[in-house]
TrEMBL record:
Residues 29-38 have a biased composition (Acidic residues). This is Uncharacterized protein. It comes from Bracon brevicornis. It comes from the Eukaryota. Residues 20-45 are annotated as: Disordered.
């Protein structure tokens, strides 16, 4: 998915679509890496 942070006008959205999602694209969000993903979690009841 591509974030759109450009102009909220027909012209701005048209440029975004015609450029393949490059024009007006939002900044890339850094993906958080969880170090505990491979460790099973213990649920206490």
């Amino acid at each position: 998915a591509v974030s759109y942070n450009g102009e909220r006008t027909l012209e701005g959205l048209s440029k975004f679509i015609e450029s393949g999602g490059v024009y007006g694209q939002g900044a890339d969000e850094a993906q958080e890496e969880d170090e505990d993903d491979d460790v099973p979690r213990k649920d206490e009841l």
